[in-house]
Design goal:
alpha/beta; seven-stranded mixed β-sheet; about 40% helix
């Protein structure tokens, strides 16, 4: 697959339909009919060894029988025949192919074998191949699919991994008057994938934005690189299906539970500048605004003839990190002249009141739209006796002709406002059923444009000469693997972290109550005693931690108590004794962890820690590697950040030092791919600094 190959795929002058037929309700019939109706000049060649003609066109037994140059082959034959047909296409000098045929990956073990054979055929052929098991593609000029409805012309491309969803979306989009530059069904991606399509569409002058529906990725790093590059130029909106898969688990660490599939995908999408949505409705709400281009500072003015919906819209805007426009003094003066002092609400939202005529409603919107401090206007209309929704819609259409800023409409109600909604749709003004939908779409795009500058920053390279104990750590990991273990011992964990400048509260093993007392007296009271058992992941659940012990007697009793509790919690759990460490209470308990995700690799999780880490889930995530800027942004995304920064006279922590600690942690993870999971919980913190109080490290299976 190359950029030139994709150009040939989407702009053929001649097409061979392999599997063409006249039989009703067959894919080969629909393909031939759709291609024959295309606006783009096209010569179509049916290929079917069992027919002499198809719809009056000469039918060929194979592509090798066609003497003319063929640009594109569309294949709709049984899966077992497809690898051989691809080889024939290569011998015939065909540039590209679409494989509609199913029965590959979704066809069980035999299907997997066929997919492997197909992959090899495509590799040898060097064809650009879309599919298999896909619908094909459509543009306003060419329908190379078996979908009947052609998309309206538009400037938004839609790439879907689900063919069935794609066909439903096209039908819905026609009703909503939403046009497309491309609709592409990728199927099982033997060759053409999301990465290649993003690279191609990034430079397509007919496309202003891209919508994606995806369920899985085969080459995540390639996808993220393409997505980031594309997002720097135009917005990419993604809906991920199967968000709640089997990725979340808690067998070893908190990180395994917190870094589930959805959370990791969200972190990866955000890192690449993608706009993530959660529903099909949200996907196309955002799509309605893509043709407007950049939203500058994302400042929204709201004009409404009903106070309640205006308040709801404002709440939703602020809750989703949107910006309510601060209207200028000139704008307020103009509105006062129009609406009068008594009726004017002297703020944004502008409540024109329910008895305002269409002329005043539309004039209010136009005044706001001309304000330099306003980047878009949302008009909220409820069907009151004086409103005349259809006339308001007509006024908005005229206003939009004079401005490049987005004008959004939320006409609330049913039959009384339906004609106005339809008029706005036909004039390509984004209209929504509820104000929250309009606000959500606007803020999603505004936040994307607001973060583009950060997306374009290239972080400085991380020095390889930071004085970390890489060689010493390598020896530790090799010893653990040689011993046939996956879980590092306490001393190994402490050394591994300390060698990367991650401060750890030193702990000591004690196998008897007497040993525990001796250790406590050596390191100084007060101390904390914890159960030591590779079979008990979360000590608190087993009652295996006792804090703030300030005498030998209390330490001896604590030893016996935590061992007894551990055996009661799990009779099969092997206990090695206890660990004893200085009791080091700090103001904050944080969490820092890593999970090796099967799709994206190492993922770092940071946030509020302690025993409630999974209950509160105040966690931010990032894909490795981290730099100082990304680490600080990660910290700022957590709720506990406000406290860490200092709050109402309470001292915070050194955020720069914390960001450095996160970068050191990221570097540790980068340097040792043998590590599968890490939990540092709690990571104690206050104005004095940071200290890991408990840690667990799990290696990959050897």
């Amino acid at each position: 697959m190359t950029d030139s190959g994709l150009k040939n795929l989407f702009n053929p002058r001649s097409v061979a339909v392999i599997g063409a037929t006249e039989e009703p309700s067959r894919v080969g019939t629909a393909l031939l009919e759709n291609l024959s109706r295309s606006v783009q000049p096209l010569t179509v060649y049916p290929v079917n060894p069992n027919r002499a003609t198809v719809f009056g066109l000469t039918s060929y037994p194979s592509v090798l029988s066609i003497k003319e140059k063929i640009d594109l082959a569309v294949i709709a034959t049984p899966a077992a025949t497809v690898p051989g047909i691809i080889e024939e296409c290569a011998r015939a000098g065909i540039d590209s192919a679409i494989i509609i045929s199913s029965g590959f990956k979704e066809g069980g073990a035999e299907g997997e074998k066929l997919f492997t054979a197909l992959t090899e055929s495509v590799r040898k052929s060097r064809l650009t191949v879309l599919g298999p098991n896909c619908l094909g593609f459509l543009t306003p000029r060419l329908n190379a699919s078996f979908i009947k409805q052609a998309p309206l012309p538009g400037r938004v491309a839609f790439i879907s991994q689900s063919g069935a969803l794609g066909s439903a979306v096209l039908d819905w989009a026609g009703k909503e008057q939403l046009g497309f530059s491309y609709f592409i069904s990728v199927g099982e991606t033997v060759d053409v994938d999301f990465s290649g399509l993003l690279t191609y569409l990034k430079n397509d002058p007919a496309t202003d934005g891209i919508l994606i529906y995806l369920e899985s990725l085969t080459n995540a790093q390639k996808f993220l690189a393409s997505a980031r590059s594309c997002s720097l130029k135009k917005p990419v909106v993604v809906l991920k299906g199967g968000r709640n898969g089997a990725g979340a688990r808690a067998a070893f660490s908190h990180t395994g539970s917190l870094a589930g599939d959805d959370a990791v995908y969200s972190a990866a999408f955000a890192r690449s500048g993608l706009i993530q949505v959660r529903t099909i409705r949200e996907l196309f709400d955002v799509a309605k605004l893509l043709p407007y281009g950049e939203l500058k500072d994302g400042r929204l003015a709201i004009v409404t003839n009903a106070g309640g919906p205006g308040v709801v819209a404002t709440d939703y805007l602020t809750e989703n990190h949107g910006r309510l426009a601060e209207l200028s003094a000139e704008t307020m003066t103009s509105l006062e002249k129009l609406l009068g002092q008594t009726s004017l609400s002297r703020t944004n939202p502008v409540d024109v009141l329910g008895d305002s005529r269409p002329e005043k409603i539309c004039a209010s919107a136009e005044i706001c739209l001309t304000d330099a401090k306003v980047d878009g206007v949302l008009m909220i209309i409820t069907p009151q006796s004086m409103t005349e929704p259809l006339r308001v819609a007509e006024g908005l259409i005229e206003i939009k002709k004079k401005s490049s800023k987005p004008v959004l409409a939320a006409f609330l109600g049913g039959g009384l406002v339906d004609p106005a909604r339809e008029l706005l749709k036909h004039n390509r003004i984004p209209v929504f059923d509820f104000p929250e939908e309009a606000v959500g779409a606007f803020t999603s795009l505004a936040n994307y444009f607001g973060s583009k500058e950060l997306l374009g920053e290239v972080p400085p390279p991380i020095s390889k000469e930071l004085g970390f104990g890489q060689a010493a750590n390598k020896k530790i990991i090799e010893k653990v693997q040689k011993d046939g273990r996956r879980v590092l011992s306490l001393s190994e964990v402490i050394t591994l972290l300390s060698n990367y400048d991650i401060p750890v509260n030193e702990s000591f093993m004690a196998t008897t109550a007497e040993n525990a007392v001796a250790v406590a007296q050596k390191i100084g009271f007060p101390v904390v005693v914890k159960i030591a058992s590779k079979d008990i992941s979360h000590k608190t659940e087993a009652g295996g931690i006792i804090l703030n012990l300030d005498s030998p007697e209390k330490v001896a009793n604590a030893f016996n108590e935590v061992v007894a509790r551990a055996k009661a919690f799990s009779s099969d759990a092997a206990t090695e004794g206890v660990t004893v460490a200085r009791f080091e209470p700090r103001k904050f308990e944080l969490f820092l962890g890593m999970k090796k995700d099967p799709t994206f690799g190492p993922v770092v999780a940071f946030g509020r820690g302690g025993v409630e880490v999974e209950a509160i889930k105040d966690i931010a995530m990032e894909i490795v590697p981290l730099d100082k800027r990304l680490a600080l942004l990660m910290i700022e995304r957590t709720q506990i950040y406000k406290l860490l920064a200092g709050y109402r006279g309470m001292k915070g922590v050194d955020l720069e030092e914390l960001a450095t600690l996160l970068c050191n942690f990221s570097r540790l993870v980068e340097d040792f791919p043998e590590i599968a999971e890490i939990d540092l919980n709690p990571l104690a913190a206050d104005e004095r600094g940071f200290l890991v109080l408990d840690a667990r490290i799990l290696l990959e299976s050897v």
